[in-house]
Amino acid sequence: MNKYVCCLILSILSTIESNADNTSNRDNVTKVPRLVVNIAIDQLRPELLDEYMPLFSNNGFYKLFNMGCVYRNALMPFSPVDRAAAIASISTGSYPYYNGIPSSGWISRKTLQPMFCTADQVSLLTPRSSTPSPINLKSSTLSDELKICTNGMAKVYNIALDSDAAIMYAGYSSDCATWIDFHTGLWTTSSYYNDTQPQWISTYNTINDASNKLKSRVYTFKGDEKYVGYASSSLANDDLTNLAIQCVSSEMLGADDIPDLINLQYSAGDIKNDVRYPIIDIIQYKYVELDKALGRLISVIEQKVGKENVVFVVTSTGYYDETPVDYSQYNIPSGTVYINRTSSLLNMFLSALYGNAHYVDAYKDDQIYLNRKLIEQRRLKLNEVLERSREMLLMSEGISDVYTSFKLTNAVDRSSLILKRGYNLDVCGDLVIKVAPGWKIYNENTKKYQENRKSGFTFPLILYGAGIKHEIVYDLVETDQIAPTISKKIKIRAPNACKANSLK
């Protein structure tokens, strides 16, 4: 009899234990972070991170690298790369071919004038368009999908040093996107998101007077571009951190079980202003100060929200502005391709072939826009015109290759596929010029060189926080995997143009 009683007791205890385990597992499965902090650091360079790591505090990069899941070899899945295209890729989980943002600006085919990527109304290439908005973004963002999934109850805020980053993060449905106004030095937003600026931003601007921001022992800010210089300095990173902390407190982000999202863009790029003390390694100084800002952000948010309730995602925009080099001083082959003259010669060439007319509509940077309407009216085959144009351009000194819109949209080989991903037929030129090593493209109208962007290098992608174990992963990953990874973590649908898998 006792034997049966013992068996019964053991059975009951086993059932209780099993149910407890199932409950525990169920809790682990269903629990999602209350807050995701998604950070992109513009022009963050991995070799400098490694070089300066001994100088960092225990709360910033050191904590991220030693406690987070670190993917050492992340890569932008397309080329060329700039800030707007990089942030759009991170937020949409796709690339320009699908999301519509190949760069910060392009030529409007309606007006044949340069336009900024956030221009709601056609304007000159400047962030100060009348109503900056995500209208040119052709897919949903992570921010949008979080709003959709929670019936608008999730809080989504976007704070960036630059307007293109803030809006590419924000998408169509965010509560607010804010950035530094380069004319006033104050934080501003767009009426697209808010009829009036959130009170905490207005209060912050009042307390932190713009003129006081320019007072620095390290930097000298002068002229009409002084706030552009400020936005590129370490002071702006501190400013952004302060505002982000204010946002978390004022909006009570992470205070309930509905996940919230805050997207942030810092800067690690070159300083666009004078330095008071030339003996200071200014890039090292900026990285050390950036580390302090990140450390303070992480510590304050963990304290407010709880370590177990927040996830941080930190990565780079995957490019940096190279310092121009005059190779001719060192007898290295180099030269300049004048895009104005090149376009004029191309128009003369096409006129000789097909009859006198205006075949070239416009040009910008390394791209030439053809008059598609004229080509159609004259019943010419566009692909034939493109190939003839390519053949002519390749005869020009300094031009190593020319990609046509037809070749890019139908690319299948690896090298062309990377360029295809960075190309969008609606906004990019019909001909994309690649110059030989050491050569530059110069626009005589704008007096600007087309600077080479170093793209294709790998950089860290770090996940740190709730439920994430420390691990170093050397496998190659791509930044379009960030959006589906965060989506999976907070149990929502990935953005509608996302084709990438989540990170393991």
Care to describe what's here?
This protein is α/β, with parallel strands linked by helices and 504 residues long. It has 2 domains: 34-322 and 454-489, Alkaline Phosphatase, subunit A (3-Layer(aba) Sandwich), CATH 3.40.720; 329-451, Gyrase A, domain 2 (2-Layer Sandwich). Helix content is 37%, strand content 21%. The chain has 18 helices and 22 strands. The protein has helices spanning 2-30, 46-52, 61-67, 83-92, 96-99, 142-149, 163-170, 199-207, 210-213, 226-231, 234-250, 282-305, 339-354, 372-377, 382-393, 405-409, 414-421, 482-489; strands at 35-42, 69-75, 105-107, 114-116, 156-160, 176-180, 187-189, 219-220, 260-267, 274-275, 310-316, 319-321, 335-338, 360-364, 367-370, 399-404, 431-435, 439-443, 448-450, 453-455, 459-465, 471-478. Strands 7-6-5-9-1-11-21-2-22 form a 9-stranded mixed β-sheet, with helices on both faces. Strands 14-15-17-16 form a 4-stranded antiparallel β-sheet. Strands 13-18-19 form a 3-stranded mixed β-sheet. It is globular. The protein starts with a helix and ends in a 15-residue tail after the last helix.
